Amino acid sequence: METKGESKDVVHQPVMPGEIVEWLRPAKGGIFVDCTAGLGGHTEALLTASSETRVVGIDRDPEALALARTRLSIFGDRVRLFQANFEDIGSVLESEGIMEARGILADLGVSSLQLERIERGFSFTSDAPLDMRMDPDSVVTAAELVNGLSERELADTIFEYGEERGSRKIARAIVRQRALGAMNTTKQLAEIVVRALNIRGHWRIHPATRTFQALRIAVNDELGALERFIPAGISALERGGRLAIISFHSLEDRIVKRSFLRESGHCICDRRGPQPALSRKESAAGAVVCDRCCATKRVNVLTRRPLRPKQEEMHRNPRSRSSLLRVCERV
Fold this sequence. Notes:
This protein is α/β, with parallel strands linked by helices. The chain is built from 13 helices and 9 strands.
């Protein structure tokens, strides 16, 4: 499971901080937005780069923000923190009277704080309520999905968001088990997944990993929020400003890649089906617009392929190994 930190000893360690500082260029000063502030690691790196840098931090988790606020207090009014979903970046900046930002960051990993707080229900390593909400005030919990979705809905969710090939076996086992009583704990669910997949021998990755990922994504609408965030983030950039996104699995990275392509004026419509009509009208940026996928030239993609952490960082922080960084620049 992807995380922003490594363990309790290095819970404040952000992923690829050097690369973020290099690509967002906070040393030049200006307003930056850390859209997934978490415990404040990336925000601290941005603020340390220049005394002329200001950061607006956004996060859904009030517990993480409370810890970040303490950590970042030394920077005074150069940092402002808000509890919100990153897709609401526009309204957060408007509330601060900010029209444009020089750089925006989103780190899509689950924080170590969330994993290590057993009561949050993100991890199957300890028994806990089946919760998984990043924002504790959100309505839907993982337990409600597990106990309320139909067998087909469960299978589709686990397959689509967890890329779990055994999704139908798992869904069938869940429905059979919940007929005997509601499932409300992480241990119950993990045990059911293990039995359903019937994987023998040593596990390199726990059999329940993909199922837990799928439920977490569904509970928090992570992929939908990411789809909505990217165009909103680009709209919030000044000309020459940069958007950097760190993803941790193929579902996230695919959305970032396709969104960056579309926002750089490349049609992303399915080439296998009937071809959409293209509007050859020139936009304000001189871009061809696709009437179907709304491709418009608003950015240049700076990373042809996603950047990965250096070997030294992966050795120091093994949980950074799956991270992928993509960057675009507003034109």
